[in-house]
Amino acid sequence: MAVSGFDIDAPRWDQSTFTGRLKHFFNITDWRTALLPDARLDEAKALVESCRAGSVPPGTTEEQLHYAKKLYDSAFHPDTAERMNLTGRMSFQVPGGMAITGCMLQFYRTVPAVVFWQWVNQSFNALVNYTNRNAASSITSRQIGVAYFTATSTALATAVGLNLYTKKAPPLVARWVPFVAVASSNCVNIPMMRQQELLNGVAVTDESGARLGQSKKAAVKGITQVVISRVTMAAPGMIILPIIMQRLEKYPFMQRITFLHGPIQVMMVGVFLVFMVPAACSLFPQTCSMAVSKLEPELRDSILRRYGDSVQYVYFNKGL
Q: How is residue 207 annotated by DSSP?
């Protein structure tokens, strides 16, 4: 059915509820969109921009507009409207994350393997964190380098240290070392990669989108929520899967196909991530809010002077 006057930016699902956000993120983290060529994504962007300008091409259906918006949201940054690099997109979390996480869970016994796969994982995470930052806050190449080095060092120190410490521990404990390393490094990687937001604050607006100023407290809230989401994203696959694999490996048929243990873990991680990527992204609203009363005194007083009590909350993009 052809449409006119279609509001392409109106959310299809209620973003104030977890269920609504889950449907939204299932839509835009669809790993199949990562397979599409740039030309197809650019076509989707052009259609979205045409719709915003009020000139929907004749014969365009509502379903086509929804699909174009899906591709746009999956591939273009919400702050800059620039196409994000493929590896850093949330739609690439399933294929990229399943390969790396599966290998971390499989090759955890030797120090060289632990070092290599933790390095690969932190390189991947650094790119994802940079790609999905609040782009209104710039970051220099030097700051990116420091963030990458610090997060990678944290992950390697944690993984290698625990790997050596758990040599005499039950086998299952050693299998959980990669998760502890990933969780601890996320607590470093994300804040470091987005340090400009912590140093200078993020742009906050009123409900209508009018800019009100910069807030460091808003940055802390947004980044904390992202850290929680990322750890939650990894937790089920990296905690439950080792238990499953430990039990499966006791069966004779599994002992005959040890060369397939790695691929099996990769595929099983993929199954977890298909559900956990959108679920973790849905834990908190993308457009985060904060009460004016909880802002820095200077910004709070500035808003009160300009708007009185008419502005009770500020809003900002927390990133992903």
A: T
Could you tell me where the DSSP H helices lie in the chain? 18-28, 38-52, 62-75, 93-106, 111-131, 141-165, 171-175, 177-193, 195-200, 216-248, 252-255, 261-281, 297-307
* Residue 202 amino acid letter: V
3-state secondary structure of 225: helix
Sequence-ordered list of residues with C-beta below 8 angstroms from that of 62, at least 6 positions apart, any chain: 1, 3, 6
* Rounded distance between C-alpha atoms, residue 162 and residue 177, angstroms: 6
Q: In a structure prediction context, what are the per-residue pLDDT tens digits for the chain, which is 320 residues long?
A: 445 667 888 888 888 899 999 999 998 888 899 889 999 999 999 998 888 888 888 888 888 889 999 999 889 987 788 888 888 888 898 888 888 888 888 887 778 888 888 888 888 887 887 787 766 666 677 877 887 788 778 777 877 787 777 777 787 777 888 888 888 878 877 887 778 888 888 889 888 888 988 999 999 999 999 999 989 988 888 889 888 888 888 889 888 888 888 888 888 888 888 899 899 999 999 888 999 889 999 999 898 888 888 888 999 988 77
